[in-house]
Design brief:
Layout: E1 13-15, E2 19-22, E3 31-35, E4 41-51, E5 56-62, E6 78-80, E7 86-88, E8 94-97, E9 106-109, E10 113-118, E11 125-126, E12 131-133, E13 142-146, E14 152-162, E15 167-173, E16 189-190, E17 195-200, E18 205-208
Antiparallel strand pairs: 1-6, 2-8, 3-4, 3-7, 4-5, 9-18, 10-17, 11-16, 12-18, 13-14, 13-17, 14-15
Length: 213
């Protein structure tokens, strides 16, 4: 899972057309999927590079299109800042996004269940700087990182604890040993383009801080 790291110039989102696969064999191999709140494919786009006797066609097509429209290039699809995508390819291939760096905070509205969210900046973001928003966010909002197979790798829960001896507000490691469970995590960062699963509830959101350029 990954995220576009830039915005289309003058826009609040990035165009699919501004994402380019790189590497031999990328055409016909690299596929981008958007996901619904259950983790299933919502939309699917394939990159093609076709040179024919009458015309050339380079760009993205809609894998969900009707047969007659299947090879029509997609030019009107955008992904909002903070959206995450599944990208399928092969070893040695990569994708490159182009545009302008977003210099504003990015707030992503959460769905009930899971929301695919990505670091929207071309630099690392600290977990400690990501802020859940909304009543009931503490003890509800959870961030998960994924391994190469799409399974949970790490899990972090946001807490807001006010106790008789101390207050504790921030993220804890759901995989920590019992004795360390409520120790706040301060050393975790998500690299540029990292994709995450964020679990929450309707009416909640998370905010990525604007980068320091």
């Amino acid at each position: 899972m990954t995220a576009a790291q830039f915005l289309t110039v003058g826009e609040e989102a990035i165009s699919l057309s501004d994402i380019t696969p790189l590497g031999d064999g990328a055409a016909g191999t690299v596929e981008i999927q958007t996901l619904d709140s259950y983790g299933f494919t919502d939309k699917s786009y394939m990159y093609i590079d076709y040179a024919g006797p009458e015309y050339d066609q380079v760009g993205w097509i809609d894998n969900n299109a009707e047969i007659g429209d299947y090879y029509e290039l997609v030019t009107d699809v955008t992904f909002p800042a903070g959206a995450a995508l599944w990208v399928f390819g092969a070893d040695g291939l990569s994708i490159q996004s182009a545009g302008q760096v977003n210099t504003s905070d990015v707030t992503v509205t959460l769905k009930a269940g899971a929301t695919a969210v990505g670091n929207p900046y071309p630099m690392a973001v600290a977990l400690a700087d990501i802020l859940p928003l909304g009543d009931g966010a503490a003890g509800t909002v959870e961030i998960q990182t994924l391994d190469a197979y799409g399974f949970t790798d790490k899990s972090y829960m946001y807490i807001d604890y006010a106790g008789p001896d101390y207050d504790q507000v921030g993220w804890i490691d759901n995989n920590a040993e019992i004795g360390d469970y409520y120790e706040l995590v301060t050393d975790v960062t998500f690299p540029a383009g990292a994709g995450l699963w964020v679990f929450g509830a309707e009416g909640l959101s998370i905010r990525f801080p604007a980068p320091e350029l």
